[in-house]
Write a structure and sequence with these properties.
The protein is an alpha+beta fold. The chain folds into 3 domains: about 1-50; about 70-270, Neurotransmitter-gated ion-channel ligand-binding domain (Acetylcholine Binding Protein, Chain: A, Distorted Sandwich), CATH 2.70.170; about 275-410, Methane Monooxygenase Hydroxylase, Chain G, domain 1. It has helices at about 5-50, 275-295, 300-325, 335-355, 370-375, 380-390, 395-410, and strands at about 70-80, 85-100, 115-120, 130, 145-155, 160-170, 185-195, 200-205, 210, 225, 230-240, 245, 260-270. Strands 1, 2, 3, 5, 6, 8 and 9 form a 7-stranded mixed beta sheet that branches. The longest helix has about 50 residues, at about 5-50. Pfam families: Neur_chan_LBD. It is found in: Membrane. It is a multi-pass membrane protein.
Length: about 425
């Protein structure tokens, strides 16, 4: 067969294949366009029919005598602790979901549409508020009025509604700084619905604790903000009835006078990495300085060292107190030790000042207690008392080491 005939056959087949591929691409593009157009039309038709007779002020249950169950979950993306005023700020999202019996549809009748998004003000939503909000009149906006709403079909008789409003709550806390700077604090967020228990029953979603996402990517496991480390949270459902809180649901006949309150308690621990270097170590070294005061043979030198230490303590007292959080309860343990150390050093200063008016004592061997008591170093009673007091300085040094070590271990360490 001539070569030119073969070439003609080859190019004719190639042109045919190219034409077929072009036709296939055009058909697929038309099919996608047709599908998208059909989906949009079906979605519009679905929304029109669902909301034609929908009443957003009516609870979405066909039997109005039963309460609707609303599940909540806290998702915190940022939080701060204000220890001066006793509050915590939480920012994030409040996930809510419930079953709406007036928004059901059959997906097969609407080209397979199983879910769609809508506006929050188009449907019924629970009216929630933070019970212990510290925002005052602005507490109405602790939970955003604008949110993403996702509606999932559960058949012709119901749909599952999911809402993700953002939240920015400032709540009051009851802090106790007795163990500063190793204190662990708890702060509780209480959320309730304006509707009573016979209308709305609040529950935690899957009994899951609040989720915490303080960082992204490599910092996904971040649990520290500022000087605080988040240790976790716990959930408790309370019921408010006749002025009392209880974790036991009241009987059905009391529901019209009761409310469900969701209580989420966050636990945080202070992270003061430098406190050991700026307080614990200097306070420990101070123990030996006070003991050295009692061992110096020259009373004037001992008095001068004691007065210098008292001046240094007074100088740093203001800065230290300003950094310690104010509390309505007991003083922090570290501040108690600082107070004890200053008082003890003041007594030591007075003690050595009194010794200046007495004769110099002949100090016996260390801890020679019997010799101190029985031997008369001076004929004059006053001189003898002052002499004994001066001679007992070695014993006082040992007592200082013991009492300060015990106080430091109990109150500081």
């Amino acid at each position: 067969m001539p070569k030119w005939i073969l070439l003609c056959l080859f190019f004719s087949n190639t042109s045919g294949f190219a034409g077929e591929e072009t036709d296939t691409e055009e058909m697929e593009a038309d099919a996608e366009k047709t599908y998208n157009a059909t989906y949009s039309e079906e979605l519009s038709r679905l929304e029109t029919q669902l909301f034609a007779k929908y009443e957003r002020n009516r609870r979405p249950v066909k039997n109005q005598s039963v309460p609707i169950d609303v599940q909540l979950h806290f998702h915190v993306i940022h939080a701060t602790v204000d220890e001066k005023v006793g509050t915590m700020n939480f920012n994030g999202h409040l996930y809510m979901t419930w079953r709406d019996e007036f928004l059901g549809w059959d997906p097969l009748k609407y080209n397979g549409v199983k879910q769609f998004n809508t506006k929050k003000w188009s449907i019924w939503t629970p009216q929630l508020r933070a019970h212990n909000s510290a925002s005052g009149a602005a507490s109405s906006w602790d939970i955003s009025k604008i949110a993403h709403v996702l509606i999932n079909s559960k058949g012709e008789n119901a749909a599952q509604v999911e809402v993700y409003p953002s939240m920015s709550m400032k709540v009051t806390c009851d802090f106790d700084f007795t163990d500063f700077p190793d204190d662990i604090q708890e702060c509780t967020v209480r959320v309730f619905s304006f509707d009573r228990l016979n209308l709305v029953n609040l529950r935690f979603y899957g009994n899951l604790p609040a989720s915490l996402s303080l960082g992204w990517g490599d910092q996904a496991s971040k649990n520290k903000i500022g000087n605080w480390q988040f240790l976790g949270s716990k959930n408790v459902i309370e019921y408010y009835d006749a002025g009392n809180y209880s974790t036991v649901m009241p009987p059905a006949e009391r529901w019209q006078n009761a409310w469900a309150v969701l209580r989420t308690t966050f636990k945080v621990k202070r992270h003061a990495a430098l406190f050991g270097a700026i307080f614990k170590l200097p306070s420990y070294l101070f123990i030996y300085v006070v003991a050295i005061v009692c061992l110096l043979p020259n009373i004037r030198q001992a008095l001068l060292l004691s007065a210098s230490m008292f001046g240094i303590q007074t100088l740093f007292l203001h800065d230290f107190v300003m950094k310690v959080p104010s509390t309505a309860g007991q003083l922090p343990s570290c501040l108690k030790y600082y107070q004890f150390a200053m008082q003890y050093n003041g007594l030591m200063m007075i003690y050595h000042f009194a010794l200046l008016w007495g004769p110099p004592a002949v100090i016996p061997p260390f801890l020679a207690t019997k010799e101190l008591i029985t031997k008369n170093y001076h004929e004059n009673l006053k001189d003898r008392i002052l002499g004994l007091a001066s001679a007992f300085r070695s014993h006082l040094a040992l007592f200082t080491l013991i009492i300060h070590h015990l106080s430091w271990l109990i109150l500081v360490l």
